[in-house]
Structure formats: structure tokens, C-alpha cells
């Protein structure tokens, strides 16, 4: 009986030691799990910071590129407007020179015919006056054509919310590049349209 009691005591002691060891193992496992969770959180936070920094850098680079593109577009527009102004001045000078030469020739003819036959000279002067009166009708027709071109371009630009490119405008309006550039310049000058990016226009 004494031996059995000793064996039982020894077994109970061993069980107590095992339970203590199991508790210490549990605590160690819990501590390691907490450390792993904390490390995972730190890594996730660092990854988020890196991603945010990279996104900011990309956005800043994109803004810089957009600003450079806008500057280039503005410089190109200024060059185009300067060329158009110079072309208009040259055409006006040519027209003025042609008018002066025609008037001189007409005066000489009238002077000769007055000496020979006064009646014939009067008839020719009357015809010239009639021809001068017809000139405003041509100007009106040219103005109407320009108005229809502007209406076409404005209708296409007004329908699109995101903006229309020059290639789409050519397809939809059927105009050539010169007519389109003139119409876009006039509409932008009047404040009816605006350029979103290079070659893309939107309703103002």
C-alpha cells in the first residue's frame, strides 16, 4: 500500500509538471502570435506608405507632363495666330495694290472716250457703278458660308461632354483642315469653346 501511494504521488507530481509545461507553451505560442500579428501590421502600414508615396510621385509627374503639354499647345496656337495675322496683312496689301492699278486704267479710258464720244463714256460709267453695287452681295454670301461652318463645328463640339478631337471634327463636319482651324480659332476667340488638351476641344 505504501508503494502504491508513492507511485500515485509521483504520478500526480508528473501530471502537475506537465500541466505547468503546457501552460508555459501556451503563453509562448500566444506571445509569438501577437508578435507575428504586430509585424504583419507594421509591414502592411509600410507597404501602404510606399504605395501612397509612389502614387503621389506618379500624380506629380502626370501634372508636370500635362502642364508642359498645355504650354506647348499655347505656344503652337500663338504661332498659328501670328502666321494668320501676317497672311491677312499680306493679302490686304495685295488687294489694295490691285485696286489702285485698276482705277488708274479706268480713268485713262474715260478721259479718251470723253474727247471722242461723250455718250459712250456715260454708259460705261453707269455699268461700273452697277458692278460696284453687286460686290456687297458676294461679301454676304461669304459671311453666310463662314457662319454655317461655325454652326457645324459648334454643334459637334456642343454634343460631346468629354471633348472632340480634330480628326473626329473632320469626319463629322466634312470640312478641310484650313476651314476647321479657322472655325476653331474664331470660336475660341469668342469664348464659345475651349481646348481641353492638344487637338481636343470642348464647349466653354
Describe the fold and architecture.
It is a single chain. The chain has 204 residues and is mostly helical. A 3-stranded antiparallel β-sheet has the order 1-3-2. Helix 1 runs antiparallel to helix 2 and helix 2 crosses helix 4. The radius of gyration is 45 Å and the shape is rod-shaped. Helices cover 88% and strands 5% of the residues.
Q: Could you give the distance between the termini?
A: 107 Å
Q: What class, by secondary structure content? A: mainly alpha
Largest sheet geometry? 3 strands, antiparallel
What is the global morphology?
rod-shaped
Q: List how many beta strands DSSP finds.
A: 3
Please give the count of helices. 4
Order of helices and strands: HHEHHEE
Residue share in helices? over 70%
| Percent of sequence in beta strands | 5-15%
Low-confidence stretches: 100-140
Determine the mean pLDDT: 78
Q: Output the radius of gyration.
A: 45 Å
Strands ordered across the widest β-sheet: 1-3-2
